[in-house]
Structures are given as C-alpha cells and as structure tokens.
From TrEMBL:
<dbReference type="InterPro" id="IPR013341">
    <property type="entry name" value="Mandelate_racemase_N_dom"/>
</dbReference>
<dbReference type="Pfam" id="PF13378">
    <property type="entry name" value="MR_MLE_C"/>
</dbReference>
<dbReference type="InterPro" id="IPR029065">
    <property type="entry name" value="Enolase_C-like"/>
</dbReference>
<dbReference type="InterPro" id="IPR034589">
    <property type="entry name" value="D-mannonate_dehydratase-like"/>
</dbReference>
<dbReference type="InterPro" id="IPR018110">
    <property type="entry name" value="Mandel_Rmase/mucon_lact_enz_CS"/>
</dbReference>
<dbReference type="InterPro" id="IPR013342">
    <property type="entry name" value="Mandelate_racemase_C"/>
</dbReference>
<dbReference type="InterPro" id="IPR034593">
    <property type="entry name" value="DgoD-like"/>
</dbReference>
<comment type="similarity">
    <text>Belongs to the mandelate racemase/muconate lactonizing enzyme family. GalD subfamily.</text>
</comment>
<dbReference type="InterPro" id="IPR029017">
    <property type="entry name" value="Enolase-like_N"/>
</dbReference>
<dbReference type="InterPro" id="IPR036849">
    <property type="entry name" value="Enolase-like_C_sf"/>
</dbReference>
<feature type="domain" description="Mandelate racemase/muconate lactonizing enzyme C-terminal">
    <location>
        <begin position="128"/>
        <end position="262"/>
    </location>
</feature>
<dbReference type="Pfam" id="PF02746">
    <property type="entry name" value="MR_MLE_N"/>
</dbReference>
<protein>
    <submittedName>
        <fullName>D-galactonate dehydratase family protein</fullName>
    </submittedName>
</protein>
Length: 408
C-alpha cells in the first residue's frame, strides 16, 4: 500500500485551520489538523515543501516509522511548527489505519474505558456578576465543569479571555485585523487582590459540586503563584492552569511546597521532553498537551502513558484553535485513556463549521460521546473549503502599566 499524494487547505469559517488530506493507492484517505494558532502558514509550508514530497510512495500503515523518519530526520527536533506538521500527518495515518481496520480509533488504542468524557466550558465576564451569569448559562446546559475568567477592577484594559463589554463574546483566540497584535495591559497586584475572593464567591454561589477551573495564562512569578495557590486552596478548584510561564520547570516546585491545589500545564508543550520532569517529579496533576502541536496521536499517547505512571491525568487543550479533526483524535484518546481527567471543549458547532467538518461525535450535558465510525470519525468537505481562505491574525501582546512586555 502506498501514499499517492496529499493536499493542504488553510482557512475556515471562524478562524484559519490547516487541514491535510492524505490519499492512498487503495482509495482510502486520512485527515489531519496542523493548525498552529496565528502562525498557520508555517506548518502548511513545512508540510508542502518538505514532508509531503517525502511521504509520497511510503506505506501509510507504518505510522510509527514515518513519525520517527520525520522527527529524527529533521535533526533540529521539536518546536511547535515541526511538531504540528508531524502531528497532522500522524493523525491522518491513524485515520487511514482505522478505516482499513473498519474500527473507530479508540478500539485500536485498547477500547473504551468510559461511556462519555467530561468536558469544560469557558465562562467569562467583564465583572463578577457578568461572570456569574455566564457560569449559570453553562450550568443550565448541563456542564459539570466550567473555566472561569473575570475582568479585574481597575485594570486599564480587558484581561485574558475577558470581553470589553458585558455579555459580549470575546474572540481572544485570533484578532483578524492583521499580523500586528493588539496590546492588553496587565497588573499582577490588582489580580492577586481580586481573584481569590472572586473564586470564593463563585464557589459559595454554585455549591460544592461544580468543578471550577481557572487559567492564569502564565502571568505569575513562582512566588506569586505559590501565594495565589495558597489563597485559593479553600475554594477547592478542579485545577489551576498555567500559573507560571511554562518554560520554567522549577517554578512549580515552590507552588507545590505551599499548596495542594491541582496544577494543569502543557498547552504550549510540543514534546514528551517538555513535560518529562514535571510528570516524573509529580509536580503537576493534569497534562494539557494537544494532539496537534505535540506531534499527533503517536507522540501524545506516549505522554499519556508516562503521565499515568505518576498519577497525572489528561486535560487536553481544546481551545477553538483546533479543528474538529484534532478534537476527534482527542475524543478517541479520551474514550480510551485510563488516566483521562477532563477535556477542554468549545462548541464550534456553527452550521458553517459542521458543513466543513461533518462528524457524529456528540456533546450532551457536558459530556462528549465518541463516534463509532471507522478511523477518526470526521470528514472534510473540499467544496465547502473553497469558500474560505487564509486571513492574517494575531494574539494580543501584554504590557504592564509602565509599558514593560509581559506574558500573554
Ligand atoms: C486555553 C488557552 C487558550 C490559548 C489559545 C492561544 O486554555 O484554552 O489558554 O485560550 O490562549 O489557545 O492560541
Ligand atoms: Mg490555557
């Protein structure tokens, strides 16, 4: 069996997705997602210029060997662009494998460990009351877990994932006004004064059962993160996400010495080597990698197995940055993983998105039920894809009030 060709599509209804379709001499094709948010043209070029010409003629069933060929063969290993590109090919090869076996992917991993996988939604508010309304709406839809982000009093601009005006829906994933980012202003002291009390009020309002998550988005120093984690301990958070910049593996040691709050990290990690120390030293509770830019199913499965040895559960990244193709790959891993924790899930479910990526993975009452179709269980409509093209976008850049650059 041979790979005969592959096509790349960049674009989408609400944001740019990078989709690969790999064709074979037996008519079976596979789909992969190489979306690297706000840098989408880069994995597309890596795939187009180097990886696809090498793929042609290879046996698509040898997904492990193909992964090793590209990873080791690159010499300059890791990094989000390369790993997103390898990841997309890997997903597509698993999709082909599942279709050849006539089985949904979770069967090839070891079958189902659960019926449905719990997901969390994103609640956000300009102020605490606005946020309470947003949480209520999700609770009423049946969600068991909600990530909560709130505007900080006195902060000169909206902070991470928080809209400018009440009830608005902020697209903080991409600002499509071009490659020049918007500037957001941040003040750690105001955040540290306000947020622990706000989280306590949310717990008091919604009672003990709601799983409350909060994302610090890498903005605290290790000492500040330890202080924050200690302060929010009585809230009983499901997790505290990215309290410190993710490159600094030492940072979490100090937090661990001061608090038992569960820590989630890893959405910017690309490799098992980025989380090896954190997992083996049991400094984290949830690993947040995504199958897209952490090298696909083959590599993420290794991370999941390593994590399982150290009581670390999964909490895969699922911001709208990812297309329904990589989300489908994660639904299959979530159905199987013995150490599954939770899945971040934002309903892309617009008619345009469903038309571009038809699938029958189901979301009901805050749980995802994986599709039983062979392979990934998601398709890609090339005619629909012709409606969309690449639009340049960017993440905001954060500055302190005196102008100093800070972490987004
Ligand atoms: C999350 C993330 C995202 C990122 C986004 C960047 O927890 O969902 O922090 O919201 O900001 O993926 O592109
Ligand atoms: Mg995050």
């Amino acid at each position: 069996m041979k790979i005969t060709g592959a096509k790349i599509f960049v674009g989408g209804p609400a944001k740019n997705y990078v989709t690969i379709k790999i064709m074979t001499d037996q008519g079976v094709y596979g789909l992969g997602d190489a979306t690297l948010n706000n840098r989408e043209t880069l994995p597309a070029a890596y795939l187009q210029d180097y990886l696809i010409p090498n793929l042609i003629g290879m046996d698509p069933r040898n997904s492990e060997d193909i992964w090793q060929f590209f990873y080791r063969g690159a010499y300059f290993r890791r990094g989000p662009i390369a790993m997103a590109s390898f990841g997309a090919i890997d997903m597509a090869l698993w999709d082909i494998k599942g279709k050849l076996a006539n089985m949904p992917l979770y069967q090839l991993f070891g079958g189902k460990s659960r019926d449905g996988a719990m997901v969390y939604a994103h609640a956000t508010g300009t102020d605490l009351e606005d946020l309470m309304d947003s949480i209520t709406a999700y609770v009423e839809q049946g969600y068991k877990a909600v990530r909560v982000q709130c505007g900080i009093p006195g902060m000169p601009s909206a902070s991470y994932a928080v809209p400018e005006t009440r009830g608005a829906n902020k697209n903080y994933i991409s600002d499509f006004s071009g490659v020049r980012p918007k500037i957001e202003v941040w003040d750690t002291e105001k955040y540290l004064r306000f947020m622990p009390g706000a989280l306590a009020e949310i717990r008091a309002r919604f009672g003990p059962d709601l799983k409350i998550l909060h994302d610090v988005h890498h903005r605290l120093t290790p000492r500040e993160a330890a202080q924050f984690a200690k302060a929010v301990e009585p809230v009983g958070l499901y997790w505290l996400e990215d309290p410190t910049p993710a490159e600094d593996q030492n940072a979490l040691r100090l937090l661990r010495q001061h608090s038992t709050v569960p820590v989630a990290i890893g959405e910017v990690f690309n490799s098992i080597w980025d989380c090896n120390t954190l997992i083996q030293e049991e400094l984290i509770d949830f690993i947040r990698v995504a199958v897209t830019y952490a090298g696909g199913i083959t590599h993420v499965k290794r991370i999941v197995d390593l994590a399982g040895l150290h009581h670390v559960k999964t909490g895969f990244h699922g911001a709208p940055s990812h297309s329904p193709i990589s989300m489908a790959a994660q639904h299959h891993l979530n159905a199987w993983a013995p150490n599954f924790g939770i899945q971040e899930y934002l309903v892309l479910g617009t008619p345009e998105c469903d038309a571009l990526f038809p699938s029958d993975h189901k979301m009901e009452n805050g749980m995802v039920y994986v599709s039983d179709a062979p392979g990934l269980g998601v398709d890609f409509d090339e005619n629909e894809a012709e409606k969309y093209s690449y639009r340049a976008g960017s993440h905001p850049v954060v500055r302190l009030e005196d102008g100093t650059i800070w972490d987004y």
